[in-house]
């Protein structure tokens, strides 16, 4: 396929005709917006049909309604990514309804409940956290790639896995509350590289978008839980680690980074960990 990147009137980041599955397209409780919802809306604005998957299907439908209100195309799929069969159903539904999958964004995360006083967590909660943060990513990568292999062209699909600098920064020490999240995201980083190697010859790309202090609904709520602080203190703690003077990023900046990775403009990039962190990991 020839790309007209040099054309003066070319539309940048055009996803027209593409079907993008966003796993975690719903909205975490609390004020603000989540990365998955912002990515879904922005990709739809650039022409993609969105398959909005989330364990909270009512929230996914809210995302769909926002997209449709702007004239975009989207539909919701309920899925608990801790379950292999739910991950499979996402892509079976996409293929049955849309006929193809061109992009997949895994924007899912959880910090399971824990006892901060005793620094303890039940085995069930720990395992659930690993299943959501890591194992679900494995299955969604595998099933998404299986769909993308059916596409024509020299670039047949793009997978974007949302990670976190918690996978490489260790300031919290042996805090059981962050472990399923941090360990899961570290595993997600590796899953991305393995996916990129395995499916490169099929024209499928896989990259990690590693987020730092983003002003998202999930980040704000989970920081309050982990540290036992209020909303203002949680925001201050996030801003402390940013090296650039503009402070925390918005979910829209995450969405534009994901848009680049989904679009043909990034066709020569795969297996990379892109850090959108305001310089927070310049010094580890």
TrEMBL record:
GO biological process: fatty acid biosynthetic process
Protein name, as recorded: Short-chain dehydrogenase/reductase SDR
Keyword annotations from UniProtKB, A to Z: Oxidoreductase
tRNA-binding among keywords: no
Pfam families documented for this protein: adh_short_C2
Family named by the database record: Belongs to the short-chain dehydrogenases/reductases (SDR) family.
Annotated source species: Mycolicibacterium thermoresistibile (strain ATCC 19527 / DSM 44167 / CIP 105390 / JCM 6362 / NCTC 10409 / 316)
CDD domains hit by this protein: SDR_c (cd05233)
GO molecular function, one term: oxidoreductase activity, acting on the CH-OH group of donors, NAD or NADP as acceptor
